[in-house]
Design brief:
The structure holds two protein chains of two kinds.
Chain A: H1 15-25, H2 43-58, E1 59-60, E2 73-78, H3 86-91, E3 95-96, E4 99-106, E5 117-120, H4 128-135, E6 141-144, E7 156-161, E8 164-170, H5 171-176, E9 180-181, H6 183-188, E10 190-192
Parallel strand pairs in A: 2-4, 2-5, 5-6, 6-7, 8-10
Antiparallel strand pairs in A: 1-9, 3-4, 7-8
Chain B: H1 6-55, H2 57-61, H3 65-73, E1 81-87, E2 93-97, E3 114-118, E4 121-130, E5 133-143, H4 145-197, H5 211-246, E6 250-255, E7 260-263, H6 265-271, H7 275-278, H8 283-287, H9 290-306, E8 315-321, E9 327-339, E10 342-351, H10 353-375, E11 379-384, E12 389-392, H11 394-400, H12 404-407, H13 412-415, H14 423-434, E13 438-445, E14 451-461, E15 464-471, H15 473-500, H16 505-519, E16 524-531, E17 536-542, H17 547-552, E18 560-562, H18 567-572, E19 577-579, H19 588-595, E20 600-608, E21 611-620, H20 628-705, H21 711-736, E22 748-750, H22 752-762, H23 764-773, E23 778-783, E24 791-793, H24 795-811, E25 817-826, E26 839-846, H25 853-858, H26 875-885, E27 889-894, E28 900-907, E29 930-934, H27 938-950, E30 954-958, H28 961-973, E31 980-984, H29 992-1002, E32 1008-1012, H30 1015-1020, E33 1030-1033, H31 1038-1055
Parallel strand pairs in B: 23-25, 29-30, 29-31, 31-32, 32-33
Antiparallel strand pairs in B: 1-2, 1-5, 3-4, 4-5, 6-7, 6-10, 8-9, 9-10, 11-12, 11-15, 13-14, 14-15, 16-17, 16-21, 17-18, 19-20, 20-21, 22-24, 25-26, 26-28, 27-28
The chains are: A alpha/beta, B alpha+beta.
């Protein structure tokens, strides 16, 4: 019954969500031509983008994460951006509480600052250890689809299983980053400890 | 049903009522339960849906079908939820439960939010929200099996209850209906009996107290009523017949044919026909005189034809025929009655013969009354409503002193123009207006000024007022006289009562004169006391209102009035004198009164035991104004006053005697108290004297016999001796005031004037120098009578007393003042044979603080002092003692702040032959005497022995009376007798007196000297015991001892 302890959120338009759900049904690519072929990401990344957005609903950041009420909620992408403009479209107009959502892209880990969700691209697989070391103790939900991301200290890892995206969550890391993840989300995910990995 | 017997009806009603009530209860219960249960189920499903929807958000968001199915599967705990499905945001079925429930049985797309009953199902949609955004929709479907199951169960129970209730109701009603039906059936039975037999005496049986019982009662009551009414009807008929027969009028009933059909008893006597004879005859034939018969028959016919009759329902007078043929006047009234179809006529006939005779008699009576009215002494008049005289009898004319013509036809206002302003008029008016009779007395004034009293009785009558008047002038006058008499009596009683409350003469007289002035009344009143020696009257009390007149007449209080020959001398001989007009009396006193405007004078004597001690003078300005009643009243009053005055005098004499007695008693008490204190002081003095004796003796002896004493020792011893002397002096002084009459004191003539000068000089330091040091001036004066006779006394004591008085006076003037010493001679009161002894008075007067009454009374008591620690309280006590011993009296005048006068009054000395005082004989102390001393005090014994041995005597001490006697007898036996015996007085077992007696018995010539602490007192009381030659007081002085020894032996020599 702990699930009943939900945070009451303000109303959000769900047009974007609806679009994501449409993509979820099309896990296998369909033959239709995307609107903009060169910038359109794969269906997989569209789902991941939607997931990134959903994390804002199933996780909580401490108040220190925001210096002021108008500070934006930042979803960062480190390395090569696999989402194209899709992520921007997904979060367009959305907000977490009073914080409007923005997407920022970083080439190097040193550029990362005041970021609440950081997606680490597979392009950074080799530098992952340094990146995570650098991001340690920052209030930041790190997400990646780099294999064994969670075992190395990342918080949420996307894993493909039977053509479905599953989640792995390193609870210890989340606690260290002071990001509280909803039990509902934890129920869906595989819980990973660095020790076990 | 309508025709069913009552028992069945009751049963049916009961069962129907019971069944209906149960049915309604069940329906209501079902309806309620149905509504409530639906609501509850809806609520439960909604809650369940909310939980599931909330839990399934993550599964929806992150596209986890397994998770979604897991959550839905939790619903298997709710058997009534038959299907559940989750739709995603697109409205596609995402997950469903249970698996076997076909997917196409779910709604294709999510419907409107909320739950509803449809086709026996309860189903609905619920959004799954996370953070305010809708992630999907939940569908739930629940079947209604629960409700149906529940209804089935409840229905069975209700049916069972219904059946059992009806059964119970049936059983109960069977017993109850008997209760109701039985009395009703009994009632019905009775009713049937009554109607069948017309027997109203049967009664229904009563079974209970409530409605049916009341019904039975009402039924029985109704039967009773019917029975009573039936009886009453029969009685009434008989009564009507009786009335008919007993009526004083003759009643004749006639039918339409003119035949008589009824005839009462009165008609029998009036007409002479009996009931049987009259019945059936024609009325006209036997009752109507022949000359009227045709008219009667015509009239009857006319009435029968037209219904009109001139005589119907009227009273008419006409003649009737008796059986014997005579006619008589009668009064007839006829009324027609319709009984059924038949018309009857009823005639009431009254015989007028007597009535006409009576009218004649009344007229005669009236005439007689008129005559009588004119002859009676009481006035009788009738006034009509317009105040006109309608009738006056002769007495009225006599009373009003007028003629009939002056009154009749005129109004009262015309006759008496001022009538409307009088109270009489108002009474008459009231009487007319309210129709009430009045009876009152009225004074009538004739035009010539004469008045008369009438008793008026006003009686309203239809034509106006009847006024009866009776002349009561005589009675009224007598009444007034009586009233005056009563008032005087009342005044007398009032005055005597007031006098009885007074005790002094003046107040008694004042009360009397005051009440005379106010109530009799008089214009002048005073009381004069009569002095039979001087033959004069002294005005003692003048009334308050008479004061001004008294001054005018030169008769204020304390004025003397000569007794002249006429009135006053008769009065002082005990007669009441009344002068109706003093202006005609030629004597000085009446003339003096007359000059003050007074004319009538009464002088009443005040008598006690038939001697006149005063007169009461009462006067009025109007001549002849004292009635005999007034004079009698004054005589009685003066008797009462005289008695009261006498009593007052007796009372004051008694009061004075009582006061004297009380003063005497106080003086005696004072003396008693001083005496008691004196005895106490004496006892103390005795003990102290005993105690200091050895000290005195040794000190004296040492000083005399020890020349080798160091200077310091001698000095100390002298101080001791001085101190002992002081102690002895104090003790002596303490006893002073008690000593009544010291025989030993040599009374010599004392010249007080000389003594006063002496004392003034001696005390100058105290009244002049010492106060001046403190800046206080005390002026000393002497006011001495030249050639003051001497008194007998002890100069030293009187000097001391005066000194004490002066000291007290000075002490009483801390702020200074005047001290006066004064001497006077008081001549003795004249006695029958010779003038009493002269007395000499000396006063010490100060202008100091004075004493209050309590202090004044106690100041002579020993130890009483107002000076705190400075005073011993013995000063004035000593003065008192001195005065007592000199037969003098002390008087003290004092008041707080007004100074004090102390007065000593001595009897003057009348020179008698002076007895030559025995000259002091020289003595020579014999030496080497054999002396026996007896004393129980070892210290004293030792010291006395030592001292006497120092003088060369041979001393044998004995410490008790018996030891002393033993020693004395032993010495006698040895033939070495003692030359002298000195013994103490107070000793245990054998006291000094017994010792002395025994010694004198054994050797009468041996002198015995008694040594005692009571010494001076014994001397004072002349109580030198027998067998004692001399008494010495303690502490004994060497010198005194030697003197006593010498004296004893000198006497012996003289005796020999």
């Amino acid at each position: 019954m702990a699930l009943l302890g939900m945070r009451s959120g303000r109303y959000k338009r769900w047009a974007v969500v609806g679009r994501i759900c449409a993509w979820l049904l099309l896990v296998l690519p369909i033959g239709g031509t995307p609107l903009r072929a060169q910038s359109a990401p794969s269906a997989e990344y569209q789902v991941k983008a939607a997931f990134l957005f959903h994390f804002t609903q199933f996780a909580e950041w401490p108040p220190e994460a925001f210096a002021e009420a108008e500070q934006p909620f930042v979803i960062g992408v480190l390395g090569d951006d696999p989402f194209g403009s899709y992520l921007d479209e997904t979060v367009l107009g959305e907000a977490v509480d009073t914080h409007a959502m923005v997407v920022r892209r970083y080439r190097r880990v040193e550029d990362v600052e005041a970021c609440h969700i950081l997606f680490i691209s597979q392009s950074e697989t080799d530098r992952l250890a340094q990146i995570l070391a650098r991001l340690q103790d920052q209030t930041m939900l790190t997400v990646s689809d780099v294999p064994r991301f969670t075992e190395q200290g990342g918080i949420i890892e996307f894993v493909m299983e039977d053509n479905k995206i599953r989640l792995r969550i390193n609870v210890e890391a989340a606690r260290a980053a002071e990001v509280t993840i909803s039990a509902k989300l934890l129920r869906l995910a595989d819980i990973v400890s660095p020790q076990t990995g | 049903m309508k025709d069913a017997p009552i028992q069945q009806k009751l049963m049916t009603v009961l069962l129907l009522t019971c069944g209906t009530a149960l049915l309604l209860t069940c329906v209501a219960f079902f309806a309620y339960d149905f509504v409530t249960f639906r609501k509850t189920t809806l609520q439960q499903l909604s809650t369940l849906g909310e939980i599931i929807a909330t839990n399934s958000t993550a599964a929806l968001a992150f596209d986890s079908e397994e998770e979604a199915y897991d959550i839905l599967r939790a619903l298997r705990a709710e058997p009534h939820v038959v299907a559940a499905g989750l739709y995603d945001q697109e409205g596609n079925l995402f997950a469903r439960y249970p698996q076997q429930f076909p997917a196409d049985a779910f709604p294709a797309t999510p419907g409107a939010e909320g739950y509803r009953f449809e086709q026996g199902y309860l189903h609905g949609f619920q959004p799954a929200m996370q953070e305010g955004s809708r992630l999907g929709t939940l569908y739930l479907r629940s079947d209604m099996g629960v409700i149906y199951e529940r209804f089935w169960r409840f229905g069975s129970i209700a049916l069972l209850v219904f059946g059992v209730s009806l059964l119970m109701a049936y059983v109960v009603s069977r017993t109850l209906r008997k209760q109701i039906a039985r009395p009703i059936l009994a009632l019905a039975e009775t009713a049937r009996a009554v109607s069948d037999r017309r027997d109203y005496s049967v009664r229904a049986t009563k079974y209970d107290q409530h409605e049916l019982g009341q019904l039975t009662d009402a039924f029985n009551h109704m039967l009773e009523e019917i029975e009573t009414q039936n009886q009453a009807l029969l009685e009434s008929e008989a009564r009507v017949r009786a009335v008919f027969n007993a009526a004083l009028s003759a009643v004749v009933v006639m039918d339409a044919a003119g035949m008589i059909i009824d005839w009462n008893t009165c008609a029998e006597t009036m007409f002479g026909w009996t009931h049987e004879e009259a019945l059936g005859q024609e009325l006209a034939a036997i009752l109507i005189p022949p000359r009227y018969r045709d008219a009667h028959r015509q009239g009857l016919k006319h009435f029968l034809a037209t219904g009109e009759g001139p005589i119907m329902n009227k009273t008419i007078e006409m003649s009737a025929l008796r059986r014997d043929g005579t006619e008589f006047p009668m009064e007839l009234s006829v009324s027609a009655m319709k009984t059924g179809e038949a018309l009857t006529f009823c005639g009431f006939i009254t015989d007028l013969t007597e009535r006409q005779e009576a009218a004649k008699r009344i007229q005669e009576t009236e005439e007689r009354l008129q005559n009588t009215l004119d002859r009676i002494a009481q006035g009788y008049q009738i006034i009509d409503h317009e105040w006109r005289y309608r009738y006056v009898n002769n007495a009225v004319l006599e009373q009003a002193r007028t003629t009939r013509e002056d009154l009749l036809g005129k109004t009262m206002m015309e006759v008496f123009p001022d009538l409307e302003t009088t109270p009489l008029f108002r009474i008459l008016e009231t009487s007319i207006r309210e129709g009430t009779p009045h009876r009152f007395e009225n004074e009538f004034a004739y035009p010539d000024g004469d008045t008369a009293w009438f008793l008026l009785s006003v009686q309203p009558v239809p034509e106006g007022l009847v006024i009866l008047s009776q002349d009561i002038t005589e009675r009224k006058r007598a009444d007034q006289k009586l009233q005056a008499q009563l008032a005087r009596l009342d005044l007398l009683s009032h005055t005597t009562r007031a006098i009885a409350e007074r005790q002094d003469l003046n107040s008694i007289f004042q009360v009397m004169i005051r009440s005379l002035e106010d109530h009799l009344p008089i214009d002048f009143g005073c009381v004069c006391l009569y002095d039979p020696v001087q033959e004069a009257l002294t005005v003692t009390s003048v009334g308050v209102k008479s004061q001004p007149l008294a001054l005018e007449l030169a008769m204020p209080e304390q004025a003397n009035i000569e007794i002249d020959q006429n009135g006053l001398s008769r009065c002082v001989q005990g007669q009441l004198v009344y002068e109706p007009d003093i202006s005609e009396v030629p004597f000085p006193f009446p003339q003096r009164m007359a000059r003050g405007g007074l004319r009538a004078l009464v002088v009443a004597p005040l008598l006690v035991e038939s001697s006149v001690f005063g007169v009461l003078v009462a006067a009025r300005q109007q001549a002849h104004s004292f009635s005999s009643g007034d004079c009698e009243f004054l005589r009685q009053l003066s008797e009462h006053v005289a008695l009261a005055a006498h009593q007052a005098q007796l009372y004051s004499a008694l009061q004075k005697a009582y006061d004297d007695l009380r003063q005497t008693q106080q003086a005696i008490m004072q003396q008693e108290r001083l005496s008691a204190l004196g005895q106490m002081a004496s006892g103390i003095a005795h003990d102290i004297n005993n105690a200091i004796s050895p000290v005195a003796l040794y000190t004296e002896s040492l000083l005399e016999n020890e020349p080798a004493l160091s200077t310091r020792a001698r000095e100390y011893l002298e101080i001791i001796q001085q101190a002992i002397d002081d102690v002895a002096a104090t003790v002596t002084r303490m006893r002073e005031f008690y000593r009544q009459n010291e025989h030993a004191l040599a009374l010599t003539p004392v010249h007080l004037d000389r003594l006063v000068q002496q004392v003034m000089n001696l005390t100058r330091a105290r009244w002049s120098d010492m106060p001046q040091e403190r800046g206080i001036m005390i002026e000393a004066q002497t006011d001495l009578l030249p050639d003051l006779p001497p008194i007998r006394g002890v100069e030293g004591e009187i000097r001391e007393a005066l000194t004490n008085l002066i000291f007290n006076a000075v002490d009483a003037m801390p702020e200074g003042g005047t001290l006066t010493l004064r001497t006077r001679v008081i001549e003795g009161l004249p006695r029958a044979d010779a003038p009493g002894p002269k007395r000499v008075l000396i006063e010490v007067i100060d202008t100091g603080v004075g004493m209050d009454e309590a202090t004044r009374r106690r100041c002579l008591e020993p130890f009483f002092t107002t000076k705190g620690k400075r005073g011993t309280g013995l000063g004035l006590a000593m003065v008192y003692g001195v005065a007592q011993r000199h037969g003098a009296t002390i008087e003290i005048d004092s008041a707080v702040g007004a100074g004090t006068t102390m007065r000593l009054i001595f009897p003057a000395h009348t020179p008698v032959d002076a007895t030559p005082t025995p000259a002091q004989t020289s003595y020579d102390v014999p030496s080497r005497l054999r002396i026996l001393i007896v004393d129980d005090d070892p210290l004293l014994l030792k010291s006395l022995g030592d001292i006497l041995e120092t003088d060369g005597h041979a001393v044998t001490p004995a410490n008790s009376g018996q030891a002393g006697l033993n020693a004395f007898h032993a010495a006698q036996a040895r033939d070495e007798p003692f030359a002298v015996v000195i013994t103490d007085l107070g000793m245990p077992y054998m006291d000094g007196r017994q010792v002395a007696r025994n010694i004198k018995e054994a050797a009468p010539s041996t002198p015995v000297i008694l040594l005692t602490g009571w010494g001076q007192r014994m001397v004072a009381e002349g109580d030198i015991p027998a067998h004692v030659d001399q008494v010495l007081s303690k502490p004994p002085r060497l010198r005194e001892l030697r003197e006593a020894l010498a004296h004893t032996f000198n006497h012996q020599k003289l005796d020999h």
